[in-house]
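Form 12-C: Joint structure prediction
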Amino acid sequence: MLERLAVLDQSGAQLRPLATITTNTNEHLLQRRREASAARTYGRPDRSEVVCSIQFSRYRDRSLLTPRSSLRSALKEFFDPLRTNDPRTDFFAVYRKESVEFDRDYAKKYDEDLNTSLIFVSRLISTFATQH
Amino acid sequence: MTAAYMRILIHTMNNSLFPDADSGPTTWIGPPPEIVTVQSLLYASLATSLLAAFLAMLGKQWVNRYLRNRGGSVADKSRDRQRKLDGLEKWHFHLAIESLPAMLQLALLLLGCALSGYLWAISRTVAGVTVAVTLFGVTSYVFLTLAATLYYNCPYQTPPSILTRMVIRYLAHHGATLASSSRSLIPALPSIKTLEQIIGCLRSGVRSVLGRVGCLPTVAEEAEHIPLVVVVTPPTRIFEGVPVDWDVCEADVRCISWVLYSTTDTDVIFSTVRFVADLIWYPEIAGALSPHILADLFFGCLLGERVIPGKVEYASSIGMALASVLSIQLVTKPADPVLRVLCGRVLSVRVFSPEPIFTLVVDVLRFVADAGGRPMFRSWELLRSIPVHLPTTEKLWLSRIILQTLWRWRRVHEPTKVLDFVAMGPICRTFAQASSDQTPSILKTNCFLVMAISLGVQIDIRDLYAPTTEYVAPNFARGVR
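Section 2 - Result
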């Protein structure tokens, strides 16, 4: 039985398939994983987004409904780090993934701090404007 | 002033009203001092807040620059990112951003003072309200800062309290007196009892700062001049002038260290430790990664005398990484007491596993950690656990470890004995079984060096790390000769 799982991009109003994973044969899956690892280098949706997309897509398209276990295994296959013979390549792939997540939070935190300061300054300066 | 001018005007229009117009002074001597003070405070407040806004904008640019990637491969991007992250920590970016709220608070205080002074001249009652509110604000702020400085878990942290804690922790770290200050300063405060201790802390802090700007040699610089091991006879160099890109090596180790400290994801750790075991650990970069974090991960996989089910492969990889790092750190710092404690911990491990690789890893760890009591015994023990068909990557790793450990034993513990390492012969033979054309030349070179050390040849430490893929082939013949 061929099971298909569409990983959808939810950024726009229109749903657009980013990748399709088939859990039919090992050979097919390996080919998909190879493609996925190439796509991974250039950024991919993180786990939560994809899971949300899948849940969202269930309401849109009943044909995407698959047993939970196969969904889980397909996701695991898709998101597990692809091991190669070169530990250096493996390491930098996971480093990139970890650092992108870390930096996003890091930048968000500082951006919020700086925005707070700027809002405060604008209020303070408007007080001066009313004084003079 | 204005009244004097009015008087002159009225006198000009109708001089019968009063006899003399020039009764008061007509020269303007500037605004009264109260107004000057108030205006100065107001403008100081304005300037401070504008400066804070300027820094906030710059800060946004800095953050964006940090996020921006340069071109190149994933590894290049990662190294670049790690360098930038290290730079942020080294240059206390966090402190710079934290100082912005402090500047704004100062601007607010100045505004409060100016407003109070301005209103004091107009109405004492209105000024009283402003003064009361300002005083209440200042008192609360001081109280909160004090509380936040003394208690780490106090939620009311303010910029001055964070700064004070940082300064105290810095001094404590350098004076090694306030070891527990990271949690709460209260229990640690009595540990600075005497004035001499405080002066000692300050002196070491100043010394370190001066050393950093180049006035005094720091402890680390001084330590570089102390010979690590006693050399009996000057060893001959076999390989010379191996080109190593130190920037890349150092960035790789920093990347590894960052990942190990910032994640708990087993997949990520697995990939990282595989890379650690594969990396050539030059003595120059060895100190950048603590073996303790690897040791904690390794011991975390053990449950009594067994490995946690399903974690054998994971534990083996961590053990390989730990052996690599521990081995090279023992080469550079053979007498380090912290490493000795770790070695004792490793030697106390009793684990039984049916997995041959895991058994090998445990034996290699014991081989590395045993400081030289029974090298012969350890060697035989190790030989017994080497599987017949060991993959080449593991063989390379094992040959590096044996080479480093043997070099350390020879150099530190038994510099004069010759042919004591008979057991090394079979190990080399095990490797040599694979010395067909497919065997990497690094492995062959390592075997050769192991045999040379066993025979009592003095080898320079730099030669242990010289064999790299690009370098070995043209120099191997010379090395053999």
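Section 3 - Comments
The two ends of chain B are 104 Å apart (CA to CA). Confidence is low (pLDDT under 50) at residues 177-184, 211-234, 470-481 of chain B.
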